[in-house]
Amino acid sequence: MAVVHFVRVTPGEPPGSVEDKVGRLFDAAGLGELIEAGDLVAVKVHIGEKGNRTHVPARYVRPVVERVRERGGKPFLTDTNTLYRGMRSDAVDHMTLAEQHGFSLREAGAPFVVADGLLGHEEMEVEIEGEFYGRVSVAGVLADVQAIMAISHLTGHPLTGFGGTLKNLGMGFSSRKGKLAQHSKMPPRVDPKKCKGCGTCLRWCPVEAIEMRGKVASIDEGRCISCGECLAVCRFGAVTFNWDQGSEVLQKRMVEHAFGAVKGRKAGYVLFLTSVTKGCDCFNDPGEPLFPDVGILASRDPVALDQAGLDLVEQETGKPLSEWAYPQIDPNIQLEHAEKMGMGSREYELREVK
Q1: Cα 229 to Cα 159, 239, 336, distances in angstroms
Q2: Bridge partners of 349?
Q3: Does residue 47 sit in helix, strand or coil?
Q4: Where do the domains of the chain lie, and which CATH numbers do they carry?
């Protein structure tokens, strides 16, 4: 049975105290045992979109970096570029924002490296045996790393219900080609009765697939890449999605890319249940935290880790994260598929670190 370690974090707890807990949690989970001298270690982070204030702060990543280095590893912070417009769609802006948010050698203890190159085309293909894919396209940097330390943040997500470790790996380690493959053939629609004609979705669409027809936005399905950005930025609920079919397919595709990202590599995982918002860290404004901070988890099993995160939210708040965020999406799909793929187990033993 998988083991998940857990440390509580109280609302308003001093940052120094949280940093200390991250270090103790890392040690208790034995994640340092995965590192050998000389290992190149990808510390997978999410730096947050510009303006986002609820992502995991860079200073909480530093204890992981320091412990990897103490074991003789060579840690670097990393993430891939996004499909949508913003400050993370190319490596120049991405690295600039990383510096602004503190994900740097000075503040986090390691340099930030964009995992899939200048425009997201530096990739490698990994053979898998999935329901949708026989091979997946992931970030090229993974070809040369010996270990991964994925530091993830539990949030809601408008397409997958929630984002945690599996999303951080599956979407977060996919190249541009891999991201497009996950989102393909699932275009959103605009409800003309709800559309206010504000034009926000037009400005955020990365491929100019949206135009105004009169006072209503219209999506060109032929040009749409199904990235979901319009769904995320619409404040009026005018952009809709086929949740029954679309989310199930996307969650499974995401998991298969996550499997490819970690295949053949040593990996440890940390999951923050702090500042949990309805929107994910890709939003510049994901909303206020849904409930008080719960704590931080660590494990060598990404499936058990995400399952434990969801279980703790329900245990501590009285209702599941899906009811807090996106009740129309079944979050179990990605967990079930990951378990089926052999990524881990949904059964676990929770050990609290005092």
Answers
A1: 10, 10, 26
A2: 3
A3: coil
A4: 2-182+243-352 (3.40.50.11440), 187-240 (3.30.70.20)
DSSP annotation of 129: -
Name, in order, each residue with C-beta under 8 angstroms of 163's C-beta and a sequence gap of 6 or more. 152, 153, 154, 155, 156, 157, 171, 280, 281
Q: Cα-flanking dihedrals φ and ψ of residue 168, to 5°? A: -60, -35
* Residue that the structure tokens 């936005």 belong to: 217
Q: What is the DSSP string of 134-175?
A: SEEEEEGGGGG-SEEEEEEE-EEETTTEEESHHHHHHTTTB-
Residues facing residue 351 across a β-bridge:
5
Quick check: 248 and 132 in contact, CB under 8 A? no
As a whole number of angstroms, the distance between CA 156 and CA 163 comes to: 6
pLDDT digits (tens, 9 = 90+) for 31-42: 999 999 999 999
Q: What residue type is 110 in one-letter code?
A: A
Enter the tokens of residue 269: 């995982």
Kindly report, residue by residue over 180-201, the tens digit of the pLDDT. Answer: 889 877 788 999 999 999 999 9
